[in-house]
Amino acid sequence: MPARVELSARFLHRLHRVALEAGIDLGGADRPLPAPTERTDFERFCDLLEEVERRSGLADLGLRMARTSGPDVMDPASAVAAASPTVRAGIEAGLRFEVLWASVAFHRFESVPGGARVAFGWPAELPARRAVAIADQWAAVELVRNTRLLTGRAVIPMEVVFGHEDPAARPGLESFFGRPVRFGGAETRVTLGDDDLDAPVPGHNPVVAEWVEAQARAAASELVQRDRLTERVRAALRRHLGRAPIRAVGLARQLALSTRQLQRELQAEGTSFAALLDQVRRERALEELARGRPIGEVAELAGFAAPRAFHRAFRRWTGTTPSRWLDSIPSHPQ
């Protein structure tokens, strides 16, 4: 079985924006949107992308997705690209932080006579889906659109090839690119000329570019640490502890996993849902007691429905009662 592929949740936010413009509500209690800085499951994203196309009847969904970029959904990798002195430098810089777009690398940037091309290639083990074709059109359009916006030039690519067939999308894509496009290639790729790639980006500021790249490095480092499912589950448990009963099935749904996937992947990391819930409850209880909250309130904040259950758990964690534990803290008022 191939490793699970994840995408930046910013892509999911952009899809919701297009869906709402088309009069489609993808929300609901069973489909909570993760924070833009989180990740979403590739299969979940594909399901929703295909749902939007099916319900809207849009033949140019890829084009529309490319027009949803904005400051509120811009990721640090894209910001690095936009802050670069040329488009070529921007593409190279953005790809250094591709981990912020997806958990797998799916871009190649290579020189060709007279220019360079960006090739979009998803891992071969991923199933062929209609959503991948839409995503490829989106990525190709966004590349050229951003090149035009950054340089102020009427950029027309040297070549546009798509690794799928989509006759209905041809008119809109050829109108956008200003040239014929080819379908049915071995992969999706866009080739830009050297003149466009090396044109200076007006307003480039080296100081700002250095600061933006530092932010991207920090975000990439944090994401690599957070990628372990253990940390994602702990973060979700901390967010929801004390608000409502937390069950594995509900948390798995929030993380776009099946309950079985959640259990299997946590086991592979040497832990379990029950063990993580117990850890987070213990941490919350000790933190809130140390802050001086009443014991009954702490029990609720730690997610216990009954004080007796909290006291049993607390004795198991510490070997003593909450009151005696408090008395043992030097700074706690007697």
Outline the structure in words.
The chain has a four-stranded antiparallel beta sheet. A two-stranded antiparallel sheet has the order 1-2. The model has no long low-confidence stretch (mean pLDDT 88). Helix 4 runs antiparallel to helix 5, helix 4 runs antiparallel to helix 9 and helix 13 packs antiparallel against helix 14. The longest helix is centred in the middle third of the chain and has 22 residues. By secondary structure, the protein is α+β, with helices and mostly antiparallel strands. The N and C termini lie far apart (58 Å). The chain contains 16 helices and six strands.
Overall number of strands: 6
The number of helical runs is: 16
Question: How helix-rich are the residues, as a percent range?
Answer: 40-55%
Q: Give the uncertain stretches in residue-range form.
A: none
The helix-and-strand class reads alpha+beta
Strand content: 5-15%
Radius of gyration: 25 Å
Terminal CA distance:
58 Å
Strand sequence of the main sheet, in spatial order? 3-4-6-5
Question: What average pLDDT do the residues reach?
Answer: 88
